[in-house]
Design a protein that fits this description.
Blueprint lengths: L3 H11 L4 H7 L4 H5 L1 H17 L4 H26 L2 H8 L16 H41 L1
Helix pairs in contact: 1-2, 1-5, 1-7, 4-5, 5-7
Length: 150
């Protein structure tokens, strides 16, 4: 039985590594294998900022990938946590939805905790990623405009 609370916490904490995909669909999950790619690219962008400073053009394109991946996984945790037990069991516990052990899809306080933390951190990281990328983009455009005007 796939537990909704475990899936929500895995999507929130280990989502950028695809842990929730592996938990729900097994090691043949394509999204589980693809999620670490934008995560690694975003971490590479952070490393480029550390090495080359904030003026590096590639870093302001790569860093938001990490933020969007984390935010997307937080949204997935929210969707998992708010899914009704009937829908959860029909989707992730097929054939066992009518059995006596259907508590895997029930919502408890740990599930709500995952949803609340995912909402808080996911929205914060999303807004920070947007602000960082737009600020860097517009600073780049202003600098290009100054070069043209000289």
């Amino acid at each position: 039985m796939k537990n909704k609370t475990v899936a929500a916490w895995l999507a929130f904490l280990g989502g950028p590594l695809g842990l929730h995909c592996f938990y729900l669909r097994g090691f043949s999950s394509l999204p589980g294998w693809l999620l670490p790619i934008p995560t690694a690219l975003g971490l590479y962008g952070i490393e480029r900022i550390r090495l080359h400073g904030l003026d590096d053009g590639l870093s302001w394109a790569l860093v938001p990938l990490l933020g969007f991946t984390i935010s997307g996984c937080a949204l997935t945790a929210i969707v998992y946590g708010l899914m009704s037990p009937e829908k959860w069991n029909a989707r992730y516990n097929p054939g066992r939805a009518d059995s006596a052990d259907t508590t895997a899809g029930n919502t408890n306080w740990l599930t709500i905790g995952a949803v609340v933390l995912a909402l808080f951190f996911g929205s914060t990281i999303l807004m920070a990623s947007l602000a960082f990328s737009f600020q860097r983009y517009f600073e780049h455009e202003i600098e290009a405009g100054r070069k043209i005007s000289q």
